[in-house]
Amino acid sequence: MTELTKTQLKQQVVQAIEDQQRDLLDLCSKLIQINSENPPGDSTEITEFIKTYLEEAGLAVEIHESAPLQYNIISKYGSESGKKLIYCGHTDVVPVGNLDKWDFDPFSGEIKDGFLLGRGASDMKAGLGGLIFATTLMKKLNISLPGQVILAIVPDEETGGENGVPWVLNKGLVSGDGALIAEPSSKYNPTIGQKGSYWFKLDVYGEPGHGSLSPIIGGNAIVDMMRAIERIQTLFTLDFDMPDEMRELVETSKRYMREVETEREAFQPILEHISCNIGKIEGGTKANVVPESCSVEIDCRLPFGVSEDFVTQYITDELDKLGIDYKMERFGFRSEANYTSPQDPVCRAVVDNLQEISGHEAYGVMQWASSDARHFREHNIPVLQYGPATLSTIHGYNERVEVDKIVLATKVYGAAIIDFLYN
């Protein structure tokens, strides 16, 4: 295929999305109107809706139940003999919370004043709708792809995701040469890297006694825990060497904070330091008893250049110096910092088309949190995240997303399929 023909194909797809944007927005609205809060995590209704939509477009659909009432949807279009591009999204949303704090029905899916309204509008039913729309459009336009675009639509992201992306990948239900997750991102800045995640529980033990004799008798577990927390928080003060390519990504992301999301300018140091959140603490029995135990749960996020083993060794060395009785146990999210090169074909397909279609400078950045992207990278599948969002409303009340962002993202999804599979 000549470059001109490929260019014409992309123009055809982008124009079709422009012409059919009412249908696109209607799809996104209908997704929001289906309550798929997690918890409880029942994806039955939204799975049936998506299955019907895909089948009516002429696509074959596989449904895989990874846990009771949690269904993973796999649908493929194109030739199995070429490259494979995975488009991934999740159907679950966080609970709406107190309905009295919403200015509109969180399941309305209404479009008003240029915004699509409702729970999941930004995270991530607009992005999910865009992926579905762009993929089915290939079939409707009868575009003969030399490779395959694979929809991997999962039910479980908002409560840890073990029944979603990792389950699908570990079962070998999908594989690919590149992947895109429609997680919320900045309009012109897909996410191509993320910090690592290191969660642990610390138990400190003391000696009980009558509170009136403290601190002369007993060993106060809460006091010892205070000393332990103080040492653990020194993680943030440590400096590390980063490989040049990671350093370049960090500096680009800091520029993004200064120039794009300017309200986050003060967050720049978080990208190159170990963050440490003391998230939960329990200890003691009552005021007049010397506490014999205290527990905390801590969430650390790891920058490039920091291994999980390093953090474990540092914490245990610091706690051993205190001479306290403790036990440390890992749990929850677990990964080291990971990224996809901005020069990888899947990044180029998305970022280059985003810049071309929008006429605005576009570049990839990193996030200080974690996501399903890490699972794709663990399976050696290059991945990035790009989805329409009003970032300030994610997981909050009055969630919404600008309509123009939905249309732009969907155009990018469509053009990126052509670029990635024909290259």
UniProtKB/TrEMBL annotation:
It comes from the Bacteria. InterPro entries: ArgE/DapE (IPR010182), ArgE/DapE_CS (IPR001261), Bact_exopeptidase_dim_dom (IPR036264), Peptidase_M20 (IPR002933), Peptidase_M20_dimer (IPR011650), Peptidase_M20A (IPR050072). The keyword Zinc applies. Belongs to the peptidase M20A family. It is an enzyme of class 3 (hydrolase). The lineage of its organism: Bacteria, Bacillati, Bacillota, Bacilli, Lactobacillales. This is Probable succinyl-diaminopimelate desuccinylase. Keywords: Cobalt, Hydrolase, Metal-binding, Zinc. Residues 192-325 form the Peptidase M20 dimerisation domain. PANTHER family: ACETYLORNITHINE DEACETYLASE, ARGE_DAPE-RELATED DEACYLASE. Its cofactor is Co(2+); Zn(2+). Pathway: Amino-acid biosynthesis; L-lysine biosynthesis via DAP pathway; LL-2,6-diaminopimelate from (S)-tetrahydrodipicolinate (succinylase route): step 3/3. It catalyses: N-succinyl-(2S,6S)-2,6-diaminopimelate + H2O = (2S,6S)-2,6-diaminopimelate + succinate. PROSITE patterns: ARGE_DAPE_CPG2_2. Its EC number is 3.5.1.18.
